[in-house]
Amino acid sequence: MEEILIETNVRNVKLKVIKSTDSEILQLINNPATINRGFRMVFAEYKEPLYWYLRKVLYSHEDTDDALQNTFVKVFEKMTSFEGRSSLKTWIFSIAYREALQIIRKNKQLRNGNIDHVLGLEDGLLADPYFEGNEIHATLVKAVQHLPERQRQIFEFRYFEDWPYKDIASMTGLSEGGIKASYHHAVKKIKDYMTENMILK
Amino acid sequence: MQEDGFANTGFSSEMEDLKNGRLFHQPEGYFDELEAKLFAKTTDQNPILLKPEKTDSRQRLLTLWLGVAASVALLIYFVGVPSPTPKAESYTNTDIIDYLEYSDVDMIEIVESLDHIPEFDEEMSDKIEVYYEYIAENLVDFEDIIY
């Protein structure tokens, strides 16, 4: 077990959190008598990180909710056969990514694969009661959405989640060098997109 | 801080807002609802994954009694029968008690629904034979709980 000190936004309260290691969680999961506790531990530990990752990828709360539920169901179904080739976190997030990707593709299909879907997203975002951003935020979202799938995945894990390149490489099966190059291309494309859309002043 | 490449742009603070997720909100009580919904869903799909028991001592005792009663009843039922079901022999008292302990069966509700036997009472240890007999005679009603 690992003790972590977390500073909250509420009156600078500091919380001491006991974080279980992968092997401790897996030990619980692999014992029928403690499997329930193991799953609840996974849920408690990953619900918020996964929610916020998915939310930053899918933007709408409803889509995030769908992806998150599907992610946990798959994690619980497959966890007893998890072989530990990567960390639990990498494995769980890769499932979440695939769920998000399915929703992104489905949404694209629903909008006939037309680029208009991106415009629709921007308008929808500004009308979303759970989104407090302005037009610049919405345009940035649009810029990220314009990235090719793989580049977007790399950008989101690196920029939004601060993942080390080696973890992204482990998840995607690509080389670290390739991941770095892809990330820098993504940043350039976002900048170019913003310039073209005359947001920069 | 990582090299993010947006430091000198006119939208670096907006990019930071997106990164921190502070623009997004979720409905109040969302994670509690999610937990309830999710564990109900996974319980349906995976009988191993069950909601945690909130057992008080009365229910624990009842679970224990019923577990013991059920296993004794099984023994009574199958002893002397020409071809006993192998399945029954493969469950120990501990197996049955463990199963009942981790299942979402509401034992109190079941017992209280059996209006033709006396309501469960902690003081009734001397009447446990009533339960043994009842379970032995109505084994089919307990199959779902026992197996």
Extended strand count of chain B? 0
Shape of chain B: rod-shaped
What integer value in Å does the Rg of chain A equal? 19 Å
Give me the side-by-side strand order of the main sheet of chain A. 1-2
Q: Which residues of chain A sit in consecutive blocks of at least 5 with pLDDT less than 50?
A: none
Strand proportion of chain B, as a percent range, falls in under 5%
Major sheet size, sense and barrel closure of chain A = 2 strands, antiparallel
- What's the mean pLDDT score of chain B? 63
Using the alpha-carbon principal axes, give the shape of chain A: globular
Q: Sheet bearing the most strands of chain B, described? A: none
How many angstroms separate the termini of chain B? 57 Å
What are the segments of chain B in which pLDDT stays under 50 over at least 5 consecutive residues?
50-57, 81-89, 115-122
Number of DSSP E strands of chain A: 2
Q: Helical region count of chain A?
A: 9
List keywords for this structure.
A: 201 residues, mainly alpha, Arc Repressor Mutant, subunit A, two-stranded antiparallel sheet, 9 helices, 2 strands, globular, B: 147 residues, 2 domains
Provide structural commentary:
The complex is a heterodimer of chains A (201) and B (147). Chain A is mainly alpha-helical and 201 residues long. Chain A has a domain at 135-201: Winged helix-like DNA-binding domain superfamily/Winged helix DNA-binding domain (Arc Repressor Mutant, subunit A, Orthogonal Bundle). Chain A contains nine helices and two strands. The longest helix of chain A is centred in the N-terminal third of the chain and has 24 residues, at 35-58. The model of chain A has no long low-confidence stretch (mean pLDDT 83). Helix content of chain B is 59%, strand content 0%. Chain B is mostly helical. Chain B has helices spanning 12-20, 30-45, 57-78, 86-89, 93-102, 107-113, 128-137, 139-146. Chain B folds into two domains: 1-51, no CATH class; 57-146, no CATH class. At the A-B interface, α2, α3, α6, α7 and α9 of A face α1 and α2 of B.
